[in-house]
Design goal:
- The chain contains eight helices and ten strands.
- By secondary structure, it is α/β, with parallel strands linked by helices.
- It has one domain: 3-Layer(aba) Sandwich (Rossmann fold), CATH 3.40.50.720.
- Strands 3-2-1-4-7-8-9-10 form an eight-stranded mixed beta sheet, sandwiched between helices.
- β1, α1 and β2 form a beta-alpha-beta unit.
- The longest helix has 22 residues.
- Bound molecules: NADP nicotinamide-adenine-dinucleotide phosphate.
- The site of NADP nicotinamide-adenine-dinucleotide phosphate has 29 residues, from α1 and β2.
- InterPro entries: NAD(P)-bd_dom_sf, SDR_fam.
- One of its GO terms (molecular function) is oxidoreductase activity.
- This is SDR family NAD(P)-dependent oxidoreductase.
- Keywords: Oxidoreductase.
């Protein structure tokens, strides 16, 4: 199906208030999109919406902590109240936490990085899938990371009670992102695509603000030295992933910058993808056959 332009398109963008998402938000605005910005910080949200409007777009800011399932559902409600369809769902928000935190969800307890970075995108997609289906062609883009190759999923223990390691928790949530977007692409009807996007190492964002120790120091030095990719380029590449017509046949793919590449070989494992899908549904108390 031929892809549409983003002029007038409805783009739901989580994590659009900082870093890669902030650059993408302004570019979506420049292209004339309606941008629904989701983040926790009201000041950053309001300022970003203003910037989107200055560039020529419009939209709204929905304040939500994606670590709360009622807040995730609130985002979907705010979207449905204002728009009849969603053209792009950009699941870009993520965090990395230095210490393990555990949150209660309907199906048990879950480690918070996995909750915010994977379960929240899964739930938001569930809530908005009808709106995506109603305006084909439409696209879901999950901002993943190359670090997913280092992720270890243990689906029988979603609290990850072993000794906590910040990078390990983040990597596993990013592996979940790639498994999810690939499985989502398999299940979505024709006209709705799903892609995973890895922006490269972008030390200039706020992602590593709470990362202490040697790694935190190395990231700060890398940022000062201009190592890695610029926030600007990574944000523009996210817009490419969301709107490039040449990606119309790329559903299920994994983009590194603007290039389609092979993700970790485990992503090709149907059984693992289905187990993650079903376990995510169980934790959220959803019917796993929702798609
Ligand atoms: N930077 C890199 O090197 C790199 C590499 C690979 C992949 N990525 C991915 O790129 C994406 C964007 O990250 P970034 O580097 O641009 O980081 P960032 O500057 O820290 O931006 C993260 C965004 O997510 C939002 N967010 C975080 N936790 C949230 C929560 N609980 N509820 C709602 N919103 C939340 C933040 O908004 P609030 O603070 O207002 O909530 C912010 O807008 C992430 O998916 C990250 O995993 C980044």
């Amino acid at each position: 199906m031929e892809w549409k332009t983003l002029d007038g398109a409805v783009v739901v963008l989580t994590g659009g208030t900082s870093g890669i998402g902030r650059v993408a938000a302004e570019r979506f605005g420049e292209l004339g999109a309606e941008v629904v910005l989701v983040g926790r910080d009201r000041n950053r949200g309001v300022a970003t919406l203003e910037a989107v409007r200055e560039k020529g777009g419009d939209g709204l800011f929905v304040r939500a902590d994606l670590g709360r399932l009622d807040a995730v559902r609130g985002v979907a409600e705010a979207v449905e109240e204002r728009y009849d369809g969603v053209d792009v769902l950009a699941l870009n928000a993520a965090l990395s936490l230095p210490e393990r935190e555990v949150t209660e969800v309907p199906g048990g307890r879950v480690e918070r990085v996995l909750l915010v970075n994977h379960l929240a995108p899964y739930l938001l997609t569930h809530e908005l899938v009808g709106h995506l289906e109603s305006t084909p062609p439409s696209r879901v883009v999950v901002t993943a990371s190359g670090v997913h190759t280092r992720g270890e999923l243990r689906l029988d223990d979603p609290t990850y009670t072993e000794e906590y390691d910040a990078l390990g928790a983040y990597a596993r949530s990013k592996l979940a992102n790639v498994l999810f977007s690939t499985e989502l692409a398999e299940r979505l009807p024709a006209g709705v695509d799903a892609l995973a996007y890895h922006p490269g190492f972008v030390p200039g964002t706020s992602l590593y603000r709470e990362t202490g120790g040697a790694f935190g120091l190395a990231v700060r030095v890398a940022s000062l030295l201009g190592v890695g990719r610029s926030v600007e380029q990574a944000g523009l590449d996210l817009v490419y992933a969301a709107g490039a017509p040449e990606l119309a046949d790329a559903s299920g793919g994994y983009l590194v910058g603007r290039d389609l590449e092979a993700p970790d070989s485990r992503v090709g494992n149907d059984t693992l993808r289905e187990r993650l899908w079903d376990e995510s549904a169980r934790l959220l108390d959803l019917d796993p056959d929702w798609l």
